[in-house]
Amino acid sequence: MDPTLPDPIAPLEGQAELKAQSGVGLSDAQLSQSRRQTLDLVNRLHSTGVQVDIDLPQIVVVGQQSSGKSSLIESVSGITLPRAADSKGQPLGQARNELFGPIIYNKAEVEDRVRRAQRAILSPSKPRRQFLDGDIDELSEKSELSFSRNVVSLSISGPEVADLSFCDLPGLIASVGTGNGASTDIGLVEGLIKSYITKPSCIILLTVACETDFENQGAYRLAKLHDPDGKRTIGVLTKPDRIPTGEEKGWIDFIRNEREPLENNWYCVKQPSSSDLKQNITWHDARQREEEYFAGTSPWSELDSIFHKYLRTRNLVDRLSSVLSDLIAKRLPEIQEELERSITETRQNLKDLAPAPSTDPFNDIAKLIHDFTVDLRQQVIGVPDEDGLLQAIRPAQQQLRTAIRRTAPEFVPLSRESAPSFTLPRVKFLDNEEELVAGEDADDESEDDSEDEGVPQAGYLLGPFGPPTPQQSSAIYVDEVYDRAHEARTRELPGFYPFVVQQSFITEIVDKWHAPALAYLQTVQRVMSKKTKEIVNKHFEGFGQGVLEQRVKTIIHSHLNKCFERAEDRIEWLLDLEDIPFTLNHHYLSDYKEKFLAYYKAAREEATRNNIATQIKAFEQRSIEPSSAFVASPTKARYGSSQAAEPTGVAKVLTGLAEMGITGMKPEDVYKILPLDTMAPAINIMADVRAYFQVAYKRVADNIPLAVDHELVRGIERDVLKILNTGLDKRQDLKNKLDRLQTANEELLGIGV
Q1: In whole angstroms, what is the distance from residue 55 CA to residue 648 CA?
Q2: Residue of 484, 525, 523 lying closest to 504 (CA atoms)
Q3: Cα(641)–Cα(628) distance, rounded to whole angstroms?
Q4: Burial of 588: CB neighbours in 10 Å, binned 0-12, 13-18, 19+
Q5: Residues 489-540: tens digit of each pLDDT
Q6: C-alpha dist (Å) from residue 517 to 92, 180, 233, 402, 514
Q7: What is the DSSP string of 177-231?
Q8: Where is the GED domain (predicted)?
Q9: How distant is the alpha carbon of residue 77 from its chain centre?
Q10: Contact (Cβ atoms closer than 8 angstroms) between residue 655 and residue 647
Q11: Which of 40, 237, 332, 387 is deepest in the core (most CB within 10 A)?
């Protein structure tokens, strides 16, 4: 039998074990063996501390101070317990039993041992041995606490003792007088009681002293609050011999279950008085006197026989044992399910926790670093994942290309005065190579796939490089180009102009490439910083208290900044190379030069010699009609139907050229044989610069991402293992510090300080 059990959130701070003599307390051999086995099973469950997690059936004794709780427990257990002492302490999360002294074989020694255990609980910082051997009166005066959530667990065993577990809780306190405890004790005790009786499997053994008005006893209020239907409460009236004369009827109504009815009824017991206790009355004598009291004392003796089963301690014990065993039988299958469910949940919670502290931190850290570098290298090389590093960088690359392409010079082959009334046609020969790249706004109708050479339109940098910012350059008119060329002439012969003119335009264009190139580098750095942090978190966040993770982040951040600086220097170097125009792609340059020259001349002729342009357009339109055809040869020409006809206009010119042996001419080539335009040198410069831009911008649009990839993207992975090992190794730092200190000390010793 275990008359006390640990609070579900408190550890056990003391224990006394008693080998009971037969014939006392619950030593009723008539209790069924199966009942004893189920009660014993629950006791063993309580001893594991699992009541912290599972609601186990138990009986708790609740009442006001001096309501007769201790006497009731003594009558049930057959041993004497100390009065006016309870057990505070901090919850440890794991309930446990701690032996307090050797096994007791003489029940007369139990009261003293329990009292000492209580003193030990109330002074948790003192050694346990001090309370086993010290002066009990002196120890009682020096308690650190007035109450505790820790308990004294008393286990009584014997061949004829039935198992019954119950917990004697501290009595509710109405008020605290001077020197009798702290004002917080009232709330502490009430909270302790609530922690038990709120559980559905808790049977509330409610003690009510008949010497005090029922309405003034707060224990029933608590029981009613948490068991409003009275299904878990068994009421016990104590001290019936102290009922004031004339008030017997009010208490008899409880036994009849007419007042505050309970499902398991109210009981009444008569325990030894103070004088009886002083005379060391035996347990057998106490039970005999109780029997005589109820048999010969009115109004109890006058009750109908049906209510006699609610009188006397033995009837109460029978009922308690029956109710507890029935509850256990009902709860056992549920307890099994709850245990299995809790085990599964707890295992999952353990899996969700960070790994346990390492027992081999050196090798564990080495493995973490290795796994991190492997993962980083895979990201740098490229992974087939939409969230991969290279996939995140690609939009910025396309935006860089677009931004550089938009720095193309906006040459207009007309003077500033005549340009507003004329719109340049689309550059058709760029249609195939200037495809819309990923990352550009495909729905932006104002942005043609080709390089629109139009009248004054400000260029813009779009995309991730910041808000739209108008470029300083706008349209460049042919008369402005001519003026710049004329002013640059030195010793050149008439009709010749220095190359410095083309170079000045090219330099202005190259200067515009610095801003988008640096913006691209900064964008890639942000992507790299985010991705490396994610990889660091993935591999290091579960190790220790986060110190290693933070340290690795700091090292990688520093390494990334150095890679950024190298990439920035490389970009500046590449753009410095572009200060002097150069290319070995002569074929492409010449091809572009020829095409842009023809384009600018055609646009200018259309604006200045509209009649010729109109004839060329009309000729081109007729040439594409199915019923029309034109064949130019040295001998004859036919135009229109199958009948030979004398060619006119453009057709006549082309026929004449063919007759002279100049074949393969196109209608737009007519402009080449027209009288020389005074602006021809400026048109030629415009074609030179625009053709060179077409070659150079593609080179730069490739080289800048390549440089950033080499110095920053792939650079972050280069030597990262060595950098991490060095950064995490404090030994070299300490050696360097020691060298500095020793050198300084030698300097001081050298001057005799």
Answers
A1: 110
A2: 484
A3: 6
A4: middle
A5: 998 888 889 999 999 999 999 999 999 999 999 999 999 999 999 999 999 9
A6: 62, 81, 82, 11, 5
A7: -TTS--TTHHHHHHHHHHHHHTSTTEEEEEEEETTS-GGG-HHHHHHHHH-TT-S
A8: 682-753
A9: 54
A10: yes
A11: 237
**Which amino acid does the sequence have at 687?**
A
Whole-prediction pTM: 0.50
What is the residue type of 262? L
Range of lowest pLDDT (28-42, 295-309, 326-340):
28-42
Q: Which of 43, 99, 587, 70 is nearest to 324 (CA)?
A: 43
Pairing of strands 166-168, 410-412: unpaired
Residue in the block written with tokens 């009595």: 171
Q: Which two tokens stand for residue 352?
A: 């969700």
Residue 698 identity: K
H-only helix segments in 645-719 = 649-659, 680-708
| Joined tokens for residue 738 | 């020691």
Q: What is the rounded CA–CA span in Å between residue 392 and residue 390?
A: 5
* 672-681 CB contacts, 8 Å cutoff, 24+ apart: 672/601, 674/605, 674/609, 674/612, 677/601, 677/604, 677/608, 679/413, 679/478, 679/479, 679/482, 679/604, 681/482, 681/485, 681/495, 681/497
Backbone angles phi, psi at 439, to 5 degrees: 105, -15
Q: Are 272 and 313 in contact (CB under 8 A)?
A: no
The torsion angles phi and psi of 128, rounded to 5 degrees, stand at: -65, -35
Residue % of the chain over a pLDDT of 90: 37
The DSSP secondary-structure symbol of 713 reads: I
| Structure tokens that stand for 495 in this block | 């009709």
Residue 283 or residue 483, greater confidence: 483
